[in-house]
Amino acid sequence: MSTAQDPGRLGGAEFPGSAGSLALFWHVARRGRELARPPVQAALWHQVRRGTLDFAALAAVLGALAGFLTIVTVDIGFGLGVTAGVRVFHSLVLRQLAGFACTLLLVAGPGTAALVELGLMRQQGELRTLRLIGIDPRDLLVLPRVLGFALALFVLVFVFQVSAAVGGFALAAAFGGASFTQEILTLADLLQPATLVVSGARNLLLGAILGLIVCHLGLVAPFAPARLPEAVNRLLARSLAALVVVQGGAALFLP
Amino acid sequence: MIAIHALEGNQFRLPDAAVAAGDLAAVVAPSAACAREFVDLLLGLATPRGGSVRLFGQALASTGEPARLALRSRLGFAAQAEGLVGHLALWENVLLGAGYHRRQDAAGLDARVRTLLGWCGWTEAEARRVLRLLPDQAAPFERAVAAWLRALLVEPALVVAENLLGGLAAEARRRLIGASAHFLAEDPRRAAVFVLVGEAQLEELQPTAVFYLSLQDDFQAEVSP
Question: Which of A243, A3, A17 is closest to B216 using CA atoms?
Fold first, then answer.
């Protein structure tokens, strides 16, 4: 073992010019054409699969439970009627809880996995290998993850919302005596195309930010296996801050 | 292809060296760390303390990272240790460089892989079994062959191998060296550089040129108590 520093293992040396999440974002924004390369596409679909298929069932169950409990509590428990129940469901479950729950799912599962994977790749000199075979690690590792997280959150939230509406209303009808048809029709009146577009765009943006946070913590910030709990805590704290900013901003300024 | 003048790293120095088309050059390093640092300086991953490196006619000192990546995409790199991506199966590692740099279509790659496997002495059944493994499930020779296949599959003008033969059995070394000889014989414009740790494999490799890295006077290796 030598006393000399190994330049291939220094965080900054692996990513010349990448000082932080904003630099990574700038790189991703400029390198969209790299998605035409087969290994980058494979990495993207791997990330989307890992973020959605593994957690879609859980998101669906959580959504159905959230919808069921909201309708049963407001409509039947408080006796406020179908319209009030569906309005609370729309404002609380569809617009807020869906994004919140799916963000936590994404961060706790694929987010932590990607953080560890990227950190270990850096530890084991694999970023050096990529650079030595002429591949910019940001193209192969950051770009697919940022886009993959964006698509995964978009899909997960959609699954949660559909399941909350269909499954939640069906459960409420089966076990609480509510009218499934009336609830669906009331919800259809409340939903507007602009709301759906804003919700989708917000989830894509939030997912991309989560991907950037994961990549920054895994590839640029100081990382060591022994300090993994600290890295995971940082990931959770930053993800929640991003969630509050994006969700709060959307709630305040958009329909 | 390579012109080195008075190269000084943190751990070693190398007065002058040149590798031309058709050469099979060996660079003998006193340690694995020296070999690693030499490759980093040769391929522009680090900046030398002194001296200069020209790769494919371009001075690395005057090129930025994007230009260096473009230069590296023209060569094949193979290393036995840390030479593969850990979460990709061996077959994904083999196709990584060629797929990323879009060297050939799928049919062309398939045909070329079969040829290269034949040079390495692997049957198709053996290759199918091994290439499904992750790098940490594979034996050293299997990892070395995967790294070597990945390097040759990009049809490089220059191949750089970092301690590829170290720790392998004599028969395994013979197969890899034989594959290298096939590759060089295919096109006289190609060259290969084997960075070796120690002189043990020089006789088997039979290089056309040999360069020795010498330790820096002020470099001190850690000594275990």
Answer: A3
pLDDT at A8 over 50: no
Separation CA A252–CA B18 (nearest Å): 66
CB hemisphere CA count around A243 (13 angstroms): 20
Q: Quick one: fold of B2-213?
A: Rossmann fold (3.40.50)
Residues of chain B in contact with residue A134, where contact means CB-CB under 8 angstroms, are: 69-75, 97, 100-101
Nearest Cα to Cα of residue A89 among A178, A197, A168? A168
CA distance B194 to A45: 37
**A133, B77: Cβ pair inside 8 Å?**
yes
Domain residue ranges of chain B, discontinuous segments joined by +:
2-213
In which band, very low, low, confident or very high, does the pLDDT at A27 lie, cut at 50, 70 and 90?
confident
Sequence-distant contacts of A199-204: CB under 8 A, at least 24 apart: A199/A94, A199/A95, A199/A99, A199/A157, A199/A161, A200/A154, A200/A158, A202/A99, A202/A246, A202/A247, A202/A250, A202/A254, A203/A99, A203/A102, A203/A150, A203/A153, A203/A154, A203/A157, A203/A158, A204/A150, A204/A151, A204/A153, A204/A154
Mean pLDDT of A194-199: 86
Query: B196 has which bridge partners?
Result: B28
> B-chain residues within 8 Å CB-CB of A50?
none
Contacts of B73 (CB under 8 A, 6+ apart): A133, A134, B101, B154
How far is C-alpha B63 from the chain's CA centre? Answer: 22
Is B36 an interface residue toward A (CB < 8 Å)? yes
Q: DSSP readout, B43-64?
A: TTSS--SEEEEEETTEEGGG--
Residues of chain B with pLDDT under 70: 217-225
pLDDT band at A208 (very low <50, low <70, confident <90, very high): very high
- Facing residue for B45 by CB, picked from A2, A5, A132: A132
CA distance A62 to B48: 57
Residue at A198: amino acid letter: V
Which residues of chain A from 108 to 137 reach within 8 Å of chain B, CB to CB?
Answer: 117, 120-121, 124-126, 128-136
